[in-house]
Amino acid sequence: MSEPRVGVYVCHCGHNIAGTVDVQHVAEWAMGLPNVVIARDNRFMCASTGQEQIEEDIKQFELTHVVVASCSPHMHEKTFRNACARAGLNPYLFEMANIREHASWVHPNDREGATNKAKALVSAAVHRVVHQQPLEPMKVDIRPETLVVGGGIAGIQAALEIADAGYHVYLVEREPSIGGHMAMFDKTFPTLDCAACILTPKMFDAGGHPNITLLTYSEVEKVDGYVGNFQVRVRKKARMVDESLCTGCGTCWEKCPIKVVDTVWEAGLGYRKAIYRPFPQAVPKYPVIDIENCTYFKTGKCRMCEKVCPTNAINYEMQDEIIDLEVGNIILATGYKLFDARRIPQYGYGRLENVFTSLEFERLTNASGPTEGKIVLRDGETMPQTVAIVHCVGSRDRNYNTHCSAICCMSSLKFAHLVMEKTGAKVYNFYIDMRPIHKGYEEFYHRIMEEGATFIRGKVSEITDVARSPEEEGKLIVVCEDTLLGRQRRVPVDMVILAAGLEPQADAQEIAHMFGVGCGDTGFFIERHPKLDPVATMTEGVFIAGACQGAKDIPDSVAQGAAAAARVLGTINQRQVTLEPIRASIDEERCSGCRICNNMCPYNAIDFIEEKGVSRVNPALCKGCGTCVAACPSQVITGAHFTFEQIMAEIDGIMIDVLSDRPVVEAV
C-alpha cells in the first residue's frame, strides 16, 4: 500500500477565525505533520475558489486524504466532501477540524492559546484521517405516499402542495375537524382579513382533494421503518356516525337534549351538544358523539339522535378502526398549545371574573362565537368601557418560558383595534418590548397608535380587584411599572385580556420519541440546522413545519408547510434517496446474543435473530450514533468511520506538543 498523502487547508473564515487564530502560522506548521504534502491557508475555503483549490491539489499532488480546518462540520462537511468527490477522491477520506467554535470563538482574548489549540485540532484530524476508509453511500427506494400529522394551517398547506403535485397524502388530525387554532380566530393581522375566509377554502380543498385521504378524529399510534419505507399505524376513533350515510344536515345536534361546555373550539365560553360538529365550516362536515357526556353511553337511554336522523347514520356500536399505512416521508405539523394563564396566580385568571385569555377573546369577537361577535363581560350583556391587554403572559419570563412567542405583540395590537372598533372602549396595552418584525407589522403598530390605543411599557406585577380609591371601585386594577415614566402605576379597567404565550403540545416529547426526532430546551421539535435546514430533522424522511418547530405566526407557518412539502417532493422525484454509510455493524460470529444493544438503540435499528441467537443492525434504520458500540460488553460492534483505531489516532494527534511537534502520549 502506498504512503498516505494528506492535504491540509486552514480557513480564515473572514475574521471569524483569523481575528483570533494565526491562520498562516497554523498552515505552515501543519507542513511538518506526518504524511502532509501540502498545506495552505485561504480566506474563505467554502467559497468556489477554496473548493476549486482542493480539487486542483488532489489531482496535482495525488492526495489520498484531505483535512480542512474551518468551522463546524454541521455546516460545511458536506461542502468539502463534495469537492473531494468531484476530484475523484472518496468523500469519506476527508476530515474536518472545527477551529472556529472550538478555538477562535471560545478564546477571543488569547491569540497564542487559540492558535496552539487550532494546531492541536489540525494534528488530531491529520492523525485520524489516514486511518479512514472509503465508504459508499446507501440508496433506498422512496414510496410516493406522504403522511402529514396535524391538520392546522401548516399541515393543510403541506398536504395541498404535495397533493397538487400529483402524489397521495394521508392527513391525520386528532380533532373531529381540520383547521387548528386558525379556525378559532376572527381576524388575522396585519391586514385584518377574516380568518375563516382565508382558511375555509383551503380546508374544503383538502377535504375534497382526490389525492388526500383525510383521517380526522384519528391519532398515530406507532411508527416503524425508515426513509422511503415507513410503516405507520393510525387509530381512527369511532365517531358513532356513519360518514357514508351522514349528510351533515344538523338535525341530530339540534334535537340532542344534552349541553356541555365546549372547552376546545369555544375556549370554555360556549356550549355544544353531546353530538356535535365543532363549528359551522368544519371539514369533514360530519358530527361526532361525545361518549363521555352522551346519555345513551352513560345510562343506555335517550337515543334521540338515532330517532331523528333521516339517513340512519347513527351507529352506537361503531368501534375504533386501526389503519396501517405505508409512506415514504412524514411531515409533523402538530402545532402548539397556549400557556395556561392560571400558572400566574397574581394575574387573577380563573379567580377574577373579567380576566380573559387571548383565545377566549378571539371567540368573543368571532361572528360564529358564543356571543356572535359582541365583546361583553362575563355577564353576557355589559360592554367594557376600559380594557387592558397584557403582553408576554408566560413568555420571555425565566419562571415560565424564556422564549418570545412571536405572535403576542401583533395579536394584542389586533385585539386593541377590535375593541376600539366594536365598543369604543379605552384600551391600554402593557408591553415589555414591541416586536413587529415582519412585512406590514410596524405599519400596523403605528395604525393602532393613531387609532388611540395607549401603550404602557413595563411588566405587569399584579391584577387585583382590591380598590384603593373611589375610581377603582368595581374595577380590575392593573398594577405595573411604567419604565418610561419611571414609576409604578395602577390602571382601573373593566376587562383584562391576557396575551398567553405559545408552548409545545403537551405530548410533544411522546411524539418526538415516536417519530425519532428531538426536542430542544424549550420543548419544540429540533430542526437539522436552525439556518440552513429549518424543516428537516436528524431522522431522514421526517420533516417539521409550523409552530411545532417553534413559535411563529400564520405566514411563517404557511411558508414552512410549503417548504417541507418541497423537500418531500424533491425526494419523491428522485425515486431514491442516498443515506450516509456511517452505520454500525455487528460481528455475528463473536456476538454473545446478550441483547444489550437491542435495548440501548434509540432508533430501534437492531434486531435479534432468534435462530442464530445474535443481534443484527438494520443499516437503513441506523443513524451511526455509536450508542451500541459503547454499550457492547464484547466489543463486537464497529461504527463505520468511527473505528477504535481512528478514535485513538485522533486522541494521539491532539496530545501532540504543539511547540516541539513531539507526541506527549503514545497511542494505545
Q: Helix share of residues?
A: 25-40%
Low-confidence parts = 662-668
The fraction of residues assigned to DSSP E strands is 15-25%
The structural domain count equals: 5
CATH superfamily of the largest domain: FAD/NAD(P)-binding domain
Largest sheet: 5 strands, parallel
What's the alpha carbon Rg, rounded to whole Å? 30 Å
CATH topology of the largest domain: FAD/NAD(P)-binding domain
Number of helices, counting only DSSP H or I runs of 4 residues or more: 18
What oligomeric state best describes the polypeptide chains here? single chain
- Top-tier CATH class of the largest domain: Alpha Beta
Overall 3D shape: globular
Number of beta-strand segments: 34
What's the N-to-C terminus distance? Answer: 23 Å
Strand-pairing-aware structural class: alpha/beta
Q: What CATH architecture of the largest domain do you see? A: 3-Layer(bba) Sandwich
The largest beta-sheet arranges its strands as: 10-7-6-18-29
Please provide a written account of the structure.
- The chain folds into five domains: 6-135, Rossmann fold (3-Layer(aba) Sandwich), CATH 3.40.50; 138-181 and 191-237 and 322-328 and 507-579, 3-Layer(bba) Sandwich (FAD/NAD(P)-binding domain), CATH 3.50.50.60; 251-308, no CATH class; 336-503, FAD/NAD(P)-binding domain; 584-640, 2-Layer Sandwich (Alpha-Beta Plaits).
- The model is unreliable at 662-668 (pLDDT under 50).
- It has 668 residues and is α/β, with parallel strands linked by helices.
- The relative contact order is 0.11.
- β22, α13 (441-451) and β23 (454-457) form a beta-alpha-beta unit.
- The chain contains 18 helices and 34 strands.
- Helices cover 28% and strands 24% of the residues.
